[in-house]
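Course exercise 7: structure representation. Students receive a sequence record and must write out the corresponding structure in C-alpha cell form. The form below is the worked example handed out in class, using Protein p34 (307 residues). Read each field label carefully; the graders check that inputs and outputs are placed in the correct fields and that the protein name is recorded exactly as given.

STUDENT ID: A-19
EXERCISE PROTEIN: Protein p34
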Amino acid sequence: MHTVSHSSPRPSQRRHQLFAATSIAVALLVMGIKYAAYLMTGSVALFSDALESIVNLVTAVAALIAIRISMQPPDRGHPFGHHKAEYFAAVLEGALIIVAALLIFHEAYQAFLSPRTLDQPMAGILVSGVATAINAAWATLLIRRGRAWKSPALEGDGHHLFTDVITSVGVLIGLGLVVLTGWSILDPLMATAVAINILYMGYKLTVQSMSQLMDHAASPEIEARIKDAIRANGDGALQAHDIRTRTAGPLTFIEFHLVVPGEMSVQAAHDICDRIEDAIEKELINTDVIIHVEPDDKAEHKGAVDL
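STUDENT ANSWER:
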C-alpha cells in the first residue's frame, strides 16, 4: 500500500493574536464602564452585568493563550500540530458563561429578598448603553472573523461577548420599565430572565466545543466538495472509498483509499494522487490529505466514489 500525504500552508495567525489581545482591552474598558453604571444606580441587574464582564476578561485572556499555543508547529510529541488548543479555550468560555449565569441568579435572588430603590436610573441606562454598543460591535466582528478564519477561540469569544450584549439589553429594558412603572421587583426579574438565556448559550457552546475535541467530521457540504474534487481529478483510478474527515481549528484532515488497476506503476498512481491533492487544496484551504493507494482487488461495493 502506497501512502501520500500533503499539508497546505496555513495563513498567518498574527491577526488572530491581534484580535485576541484587543479583546482583553475591550473587556477592561467595558467592565469599567459597567461598574460605573452600577455605582451610579445601585441596580442588581447592572451589578450582575458588570460581574459578567470579569468573566469576559478571563475568557479573552484564555483565547489569546490558546491561539498562541495553536500556532506552534508540529513536534515529536504532537505530530499533527496543536490546533485543538483553541477548542479548550472555547470549552472554558462556555463553562464561564454558565458560571456568570449562576452568579446573576444569586444576585437576583438577593434582590428579590431585599428590593432596592435605584438611584439615577436614566444616567445608569445611558452609561451602560455605551458599554453595550461597544460590546455589540466587537462581538459581531469577532464572530465574523472567527468563522472566516476557522478560529474556534475567536468565534467562542465573540459568542460569549454576544451573551453579554443580550444581558445588557435585557438589563436596560428592565431598568427602563422600573423607571416607567416604579416597580423595583422588575430589576431582579429581568436579571433572572437574562441569566436563563445565558445559561442555555453557555451550554450550547460547551457541547459544540466538546464535539470538536472528539474529532467531529467536516460538514456535509465540505465532504461533498471533497468527493466532487476526487471525481473530477481521479482519471486513471477506479474508485475512492472510506473517505474520512476531521477538523482541528482551521485545519481539515482528509483521508481515503484510492483503488487503482493492479498493474499500474507506482509513479502513475503517485501522479494521480498529486492531481487529486492539488484539486482539494484549491477547493479547500488549510487541508492535510492522506491517500492510501490500493490494487483493484481491494475495491468496495458500498459507499465508494466510482471514478
